[in-house]
Specification:
Elements: H1 13-17, H2 46-54, H3 57-64, H4 71-79, H5 86-98, H6 102-110, H7 123-140, H8 153-167, H9 172-200, H10 206-209
Helix pairs in contact: 2-9, 3-4, 4-5, 5-9, 7-8
């Protein structure tokens, strides 16, 4: 393989436009911090949420598709605005995630990219992770999804490889259930990053959100 394969962290499309990366929580079996620990979303404040509430339906839907690639999920979360606080937004997002049908889940999973390691990761770890991702995708038909929020760069390789290998032993239904919950956790962190970006983006307009082409 020429060059240094996929050495930079590649986040789903929204994160490529935002200063904060969408990192996601953890596979619970690996013992990483939960997204529901004390003060899990210090990146959020009322300004970003107010701007999110004020977006046009089209702009909100487009941005939300980069938090979760299900069109039904994005429509539901956008339609329930305005949210009085960030907790209410997360609750609505969770409810929409739990209500995803199998076709909705397939649509969302098809929009995901596998998590990757930070710059400076060992070449051997990158090769091992590439091989593990490839095997996983051939087995389950979609990218490996895991929430890594709270995981340090030094821990990422071991966390990812251990989780992929463990989940490769599951049957299709079991793995889809885990993927759905990891997708829900990842969507929470992307929502935090979205509202954080809206806080720092002075005077963001609906036209600017038009730059976010829907996923899929």
């Amino acid at each position: 393989m020429a060059g240094h394969p996929r050495h930079a962290t590649r986040s789903p499309p929204l994160s490529s436009h935002l200063p904060a990366q969408a990192r996601g929580g953890s596979d619970p079996s690996l013992g990483s911090p939960s997204l529901h620990d004390a003060d899990p979303f210090p990146r959020t404040d009322d300004t970003g949420l107010a701007r999110f509430n004020a977006l046009s339906p089209e702009a909100a839907h487009s941005a939300l598709l980069h938090c979760c690639g299900s069109r039904r999920w994005a429509h539901r979360v956008a339609a329930h605005r305005p949210y009085p606080d960030f907790g209410a937004l997360l609750a609505a997002a969770d409810e929409a995630s739990y209500d995803l049908s199998q076709p909705d889940l397939s649509e969302a999973l098809a929009c995901e990219f596998p998590p990757e390691l930070e710059h400076g990761a060992a070449y051997a770890a990158i090769l091992a992770l590439d091989a593990a991702h490839g095997e996983y995708e051939r087995t389950f038909g979609h990218a490996f999804v895991i929430c890594l929020d709270g995981t340090t760069p030094e821990e990422q390789a071991d966390q990812l490889l251990a989780a992929i290998r463990r989940r490769m032993e599951l049957d299709l239904d079991e793995e889809r259930a885990i993927s759905a919950d990891e997708l829900r956790r990842v969507a929470q962190v992307r929502l935090a990053d979205l509202t954080h970006w809206l806080t720092s983006a002075d005077g963001v307009s609906a036209a600017e959100f038009g730059l976010f082409a829907p996923v899929g």
